[in-house]
Specification:
By secondary structure, this protein is mostly helical. The chain is 39% helix and 7% strand.
């Protein structure tokens, strides 16, 4: 099954089993569907910043902190430049250069065609903590603390049974 078929099947049937309306007809507007499948691949090397020799820059700090995971020695600007040239194609977003892994050439093609957006995955978190950001997203509440795992989330808020129980408990 390809991704498109999976998403169509999930939207048409899977979501309906959670009390959400099924999407059976073509939509008249664009819809953003966010599906988070845990245990996916590690994307930390997919979109790195372009190398920078300024020790104060985020790009320099990125490459120094991740040198070992890239298989290069820390502190070597030449090794960083060689790794970037060998493994990445350069892309640009509002004047900021970054790399797209060459193994994902299709992504570079889609980026150049204007069909890809990079959405920072820690929106709403008070730090760059991805796990906290996931809690914020799943709960739909920016005030969610990093350790608040037991709160009801978006699905519960949309569920008629949850809403009725909430009203009757007041």
């Amino acid at each position: 099954m390809n991704r498109r078929n999976f998403l169509q099947l999930a939207a048409a049937s899977g979501l309906a089993s959670y009390g959400l309306p099924a999407i059976a007809a073509p939509l008249s507007r664009r819809v953003l569907v966010n599906i988070a499948l845990t245990g996916g691949p590690d994307f930390r090397h997919l979109l790195p910043p372009a190398p920078d020799t300024n020790p104060q820059s985020w790009a320099y700090q990125y490459w120094q902190a991740r040198a070992a995971s890239h298989g290069i020695p820390a502190g070597s600007n030449q090794a960083v430049a060689a790794r970037f040239a060998a493994a990445y194609v350069t892309a640009n977003a509002n004047g900021t250069q970054f790399g797209i892994l060459k193994k994902c050439g299709w992504l570079k093609t889609m980026w150049d065609a204007g069909k890809v957006a990079i959405i920072h995955n820690v929106l709403g978190a008070s730090s760059r903590d991805h796990a906290h950001a996931q809690l914020v997203m799943n709960h739909g509440d920016r005030n969610t603390l990093p350790t608040q795992f037991g709160k009801p989330g978006w699905g519960a808020a949309w569920s008629p049974a949850w809403a009725a129980a909430r009203v009757s408990s007041r």
